[in-house]
Predict the structure.
Amino acid sequence: MNQAILLESNADNIDFMIHGIFSIKVFGQEVWITTSHACILIVMAIMVIFAIVANRKLKKAKEVPDGFQNIIELIVEMLDKMVEGTMGKWAPRFVNYISTIFIFILMSNISGLFGLRPSTADYGTTLALALITFFMIRFNKAKHQSAKDIWTGMCSPLPPWLPIWAPINIISEIAIPISLSLRLFANVLSGTVIMALVYGLLRFIAIAWPSVLHVYFDLFSGAIQTYVFCMLTMTYVTQACETDE
């Protein structure tokens, strides 16, 4: 009974939803700027400012790097090695894109540490990222593979004159952006919901110790989901680029 009263009394304090900040009129239609948009804009602004500062710093790079130059070189080398280890000879073509989405997703995932609602807890954000990956796959497959190779792949593992597996393979291709977006969205949202429950139901005793949960849900899980999304993107795009020649 006491637990039921506690849950009921604190239910109004549990908030993990997307909220509108203000609305604007666009071609006569009301468009809301939400907490997800705010998080995206803040993350993008930080990335742009960091890129400008890093660019100016590297133009005056020292032979013996100092602290900030060390950080820049460490980030670049880490991302270059990650992309090269997965994509091989195709890495130079996609390293800038993969590095950008890696930093964007990671910063979005850990934005909860700074009082923001992670934009990756909004399915609209993760679906947009997954659709970019999907169209990159389709574009590179059409660019590097002939129509015969694509059809053979769709009929695999059976011969191309027996397209029994073609519908299943087509469905699996369509499922790529859905699985990519849902995996990232569900994992980030689950952490957001759990932390909202902690602060909403246990607000009187939620002092200091929730930081341990933030380390797991925002830092550890956020980094893992960032790596998984980028790794799958690199794998799919590499497979689309490769031919049997």
Summary: Residues 1-11 have pLDDT under 50 and may be disordered. The helical segments are 2-10, 35-59, 67-87, 91-109, 123-144, 147-155, 166-201, 210-241. The chain is about 70% helix and 5% strand.
